[in-house]
Amino acid sequence: MADAVIDLNADLGEGFGRWTLTDDEALLSVVTSANVACGFHAGDPSTMRRVCALAAERGVRIGAQVSYRDLAGFGRRAMDVPPEELADEIAYQIGALQVFARAAGSRVSYVKPHGALYNRVVADGEQAEAVVAGILRSGAVSEGPLPVLGLPGSRLLAVAGDVGLPVVTEAFADRAYTWAGTLVPRREPDAVIHEPEKVITRAVGIARDGTVEAVGGEPVAVEARSLCVHGDTPGAAQLAWRIRGALASAGVRVEAFT
């Protein structure tokens, strides 16, 4: 893929009150899209405002990272939320972030679920429909196309596409993949890859060749327009810079998908 293009996204604003997890300022100098926590798994009004202002200043696209209501579990615990209630909570989160995005002279440009919700809507059609209903209910689509970022082949992207929302496929260089092209659950050993050189090699392979090595060692096809760089890992910003440099050296152009 000599003409390969990819977006770099990162989870930002993952703090609450005096507690901070992500180096937002450093990551916003590297990534092209910012998945901003909307208060349900992390984030608070002041953090959301600050991240939106920094993102707008640097030309980084602002995305709503919506989640189950689970501050204590960082949105990574499985939850059973009635579809109508979930749709309202998705709309609420997008609306909250939109206030601060507008104040910064920007807008919410896409939506990406977080954690347990992200994994749930890969196969759960009812929860996927609730997320999409919430996106439509938020009214953010009235300001322009609102892409949905998610795993290739997921129910979420299928449902979003069915109602006319743009869909964007995503991959993870620092997460282990199964032979079926799905993510290995975080509760399993070696689900997260910590070796920087391995992460960088996988990032280039995903962006340039459309493949990644699965847990058994065999290559698996991965369709991705965006590559996630996790912001809650030690040295995330430095690793993101190295990934971006390696992509450039491999002839991959880095630019936002919106």
Automatic annotation (TrEMBL):
Its EC number is 3.5.2.9. Gene3D superfamilies: Glycoside hydrolase/deacetylase. The gene is pxpA. Forms a complex composed of PxpA, PxpB and PxpC. It catalyses: 5-oxo-L-proline + ATP + 2 H2O = L-glutamate + ADP + phosphate + H(+). It comes from the Bacteria. Keywords: ATP-binding, Hydrolase, Nucleotide-binding. Belongs to the LamB/PxpA family. This is 5-oxoprolinase subunit A. It comes from Kitasatospora putterlickiae. Catalyzes the cleavage of 5-oxoproline to form L-glutamate coupled to the hydrolysis of ATP to ADP and inorganic phosphate.
